[in-house]
Specification:
This protein has about 375 residues and is of the alpha/beta class. Helices cover about 20% and strands about 35% of the residues. The structure holds fe (ii) ion.
Length: about 375
């Protein structure tokens, strides 16, 4: 595919950075469609300090906010460069999705919240072994989304990845539904997007932090699953339907089995609307299941402490491994290759996906 390189200058309508302001996150590119994209960066304007009267205990909290520039009128299948003139720390590039069928690559990974040294190794290996057009993060980006001190660490480690991909995150329970997440990622709790011939629905599976009462949580989940059914129904012509979220419906971690009943109850809907594959995190390991035609992949190996895979579910297990990992998906027309890769570059699982519009499948029979 021919990619025209186009430069975008982030000039109009921006508030000039004040002298004390420091960019501590991004730039990253979110909400990318064939025609639009938003470039975001995180600014620290000051730092608050709290301490005990005798000064024996001191806490610092950076004051953070996001700044962004939204671009419209873009064209499909282009790589765009962006920059703020005079600010070498605010530049990068990204691709817009191809129009219709094409070749593209994306990565899926998650649970980057702790063990920053391991998170750093995972990102370095990902950049060495992948050339993604976009990244899907399955949640638990940081250990506590409400703690502003953690986000600059996350952004520093992810810096080189974020400067070259479109970014599509999912809420994990450790984001705590915090304002920081929605501000920095400029993401709705759940949303969908298209990339070429593939459709993606990103879920908010974190009901625990979604609402204060059980009734409100049930209402929220009903609204979301109604939206998901409608969203998938409208995209039956896509060659691939992918779903991503944080909490998985099944697991090989024995003391977590049955933990997410709302996700277990969701699987018939995924089957009804012919989801190709569903990606999750939350369990810090790699797991791959095939159940009623849907591939379920758990890739929660981005840095958080590893969990055992001591009780793989019978009859559906394809591969489980207690290791850090990320997943690379290469789509070529109606075929896709999926590889799970460890930070040392070892492929621990590989499988193929057959795509195809459900309408064309029905016509063939
Ligand atoms: Fe989690």
């Amino acid at each position: 595919m021919r990619n025209t390189l186009v430069s975008l200058l982030l000039l109009a309508g921006l508030t000039p950075l004040m002298a004390a302001d420091k960019v501590v996150g991004g730039p990253l590119v979110v909400n990318v469609t064939a025609r639009t994209a938003t470039v975001v960066w995180i600014v620290q304007s000051d730092e608050a300090v709290m301490k005990t009267a005798d000064g024996s205990e001191v806490h610092n909290a950076p004051l953070l906010h996001s700044e962004s520039a939204r671009f419209t009128g873009l064209k499909a299948g282009n790589r765009y460069q962006y920059e703020v003139p005079g600010r070498p720390d605010l530049k990068g590039s990204f691709k817009t999705p191809p129009a219709g069928e094409g070749q593209f690559e994306f990565v899926v990974y998650g649970d980057t919240r702790t063990r920053h040294d391991v998170h750093r190794k995972v990102i370095a290996a990902l950049l060495e072994h992948c050339h993604p057009d976009f990244a899907v993060q399955t949640g638990d980006l940081v250990n506590d989304g409400g703690d502003p001190a953690l986000w600059p660490i996350f952004f520093e480690i992810e810096r080189d990845l974020l400067r070259q991909v479109a970014y599509y995150p999912a809420l994990g329970n450790h984001e705590r539904h915090s304002h920081n997440y929605s501000d920095f990622m400029q993401a709705a709790p759940y949303y969908s997007f298209n990339w070429g011939n593939a459709h993606f629905a990103i879920l908010d599976t974190d009901l625990g932090n979604a609402a204060p009462s059980e009734l409100a949580r049930q209402t929220y989940w009903k609204e979301q699953t109604d939206w998901l059914a409608s969203d998938l129904e409208k995209n039956q012509k896509a060659a691939f339907r992918f779903v991503a979220g944080h909490h998985p419906p099944m697991t090989a971690v024995s003391n977590r089995q049955g933990d997410n009943p709302h996700m277990i109850a969701l699987t018939p809907l995924l089957e009804q609307y012919h989801v190709t594959a569903a990606f999750f995190g939350h369990d810090h390991n790699y797991q791959h299941y095939l159940k009623n035609g849907i591939h379920y992949v758990i890739t929660g190996g981005g840095g958080a402490p590893l969990y055992d895979v001591d009780k793989p579910p019978e009859g559906i297990t394809q591969k489980v491994a207690s290791t850090e990992n990320f997943v690379r998906v290469r789509v070529d027309g109606k075929k896709a290759n999926v590889e799970a890769i460890t930070p040392d570059g070892t492929t621990i699982d590989e499988f193929e996906l057959e795509g195809g519009s459900r309408e064309s499948a029905a016509a063939a029979h």
